[in-house]
Amino acid sequence: MTASKDIRTRAARLGPDDVRAAAARIAGDVVRTPTVRAFSLEREGGPELWLKCENLQRIGAFKARGAQHAIGRLDPSVRARGVITFSSGNHAQAVAWAARIHGVPATIAMPEDAPRIKVAGVRALGAQVVFAGTTSDERRAAALALHERTGAAIIQPFDDEDIVCGQGTATLELADDVEAATGRGLDAILVPVGGGGLVAGACLATRGRGIAIHAVEPAGCDAMARSLEQGQRVRVGPAPTLADGLKPVQVGELNFEIARTDLAGTHRVDDDELGLALVRLLVRAKLFVEPSGAAGLAVALRGLPRDARRIGVILTGGNADPTLVAALLERWGAEA
Amino acid sequence: MTASKDIRTRAARLGPDDVRAAAARIAGDVVRTPTVRAFSLEREGGPELWLKCENLQRIGAFKARGAQHAIGRLDPSVRARGVITFSSGNHAQAVAWAARIHGVPATIAMPEDAPRIKVAGVRALGAQVVFAGTTSDERRAAALALHERTGAAIIQPFDDEDIVCGQGTATLELADDVEAATGRGLDAILVPVGGGGLVAGACLATRGRGIAIHAVEPAGCDAMARSLEQGQRVRVGPAPTLADGLKPVQVGELNFEIARTDLAGTHRVDDDELGLALVRLLVRAKLFVEPSGAAGLAVALRGLPRDARRIGVILTGGNADPTLVAALLERWGAEA
Known about the structure:
Structural class of chain A: alpha/beta
Number of helices of chain A: 14
Largest interface: A-B, 30 and 30 residues
Order of helices and strands of chain A: HHEEHHEHEHEHEHEHEHHEHHEH
Mean pLDDT of chain A: 95
Distance between the termini of chain A: 44 Å
Largest sheet of chain A: 6 strands, mixed
Oligomer: homodimer
Shape of chain A: globular
Radius of gyration of chain A: 19 Å
Low-confidence stretches of chain A: none
């Protein structure tokens, strides 16, 4: 699959100014989440670790940023017809939440076997749920059909310029906060990758600042790493991972084009590393994250990226199942 | 027990300026912890809830503030002889940590049956541990003997002006942050009470600002409420509670004198309320607190204080046993 010239041109043209513009547009609606230094997770003589707490974001994940930005960027006459999406994860909640802020209806296409708690979650935010088969293709088809019928706008989960710039605002704040606190910039930032919206936004937000952006994926769900290795986007089969937020089978086209020019490295983490990182964040740093949200720290706990003296870690979200977290605490608490 | 006239005079004389001076002295050493609005814990149409995240403080609790302040206030020639304390909780870790910042030795008198993890905790911070019986009287006697022999200064856990002003800096930041964020002040702040250092500091920090300070104690460990009811300090027998940080049998003399003129109300919470509040903080607000740290929220979940439209809640600390938290998640996760 070769990217169109148009996508390459856009990937090259976008930059920090676009992310700053997105930040200005969504300020006051999303939370400017805290950046905290994790003294309790640092090794003696090791690098400083700075955590960007997107688990403290509205709806418990950074996805609120992109959804709020993308819906805000719609033409008002289009937006008035409502919005649709077909994610069943944090993006679904983010779209439901942002639609409510904008006062427009939201419809979420979910699988027939979606966990009740997720269905209840988007309904509690005022969104309508339509059930459509069990595969992502079926959900996407249902969303398209709805779009054709109602004219409601589809809010893409990650492969979209407005989403990417919205998600990039998290990294912008992290980089700015650490610079303000220390007088020096971060050397590197660890970013969990599913479809690549957050990491593409991280690249854009920091272009020209000398900060190395590193992607982190679950082992087996390494669509970005494999795509970069092969020089083109590849699909990976669904693989089991604790990090249910990082499972897309293919990264976004725009996101890949940005990543291929900007990314400094990629890392794969396994479930044991994710579990231990999650529990250390809880017990030491006192922050509750979902497994996907612990992926960046899992890499830092390996002592990577090497030679970085000041590392930023994006804690992407905190929407974890309490029973799972209880089990992980039992399993890893003594080693935390 | 009647307070000396001297104590009453001091209680009346102290105020926000003393707390601001303490804040200036400890700035850069302690963390200016985030104040976050807990949208996910608010009821539709209910008051705003603002959380002061002292679980994200150095050593995981607000006690770092008072210890750092009190040790910093010692005459350098006295401080050079080292410091001693006899708490086995967060204050012990705080003194060990602050002594290291000041480059002086710390000795902690602990019970012979102290949990290994607490002993290891203060040793990891470079403090020396001396074991002294199993009661608090024995530990206090050991500390006094050590003071006589070495001249090292005793750092009181709560009944001390420098400790009170140091702890008050947490409330000062909370009140300032909410005012800066909203343009309006808090109506009330919920403060967990053990020996009363934090709540006395909260009273001082907010004098003249029209913010109602409310004390929260575990049922059965209600030394402050009973003392206020009787008009003098009374001792309460040790009672079982999840909130092991809120068990002192008597509040401080200075603290009581401040509280009796300034406190707007007192509240008692039981273990079920503490457990549910702790789990809601975890699952909804994404913050890991110890049971004591959840006491303020437990009162807010009752809809108190009535008529307050903007409530501050101090999350005092996050040093909870992972196994206990896992059990509470299992017990309350479904209701969170």
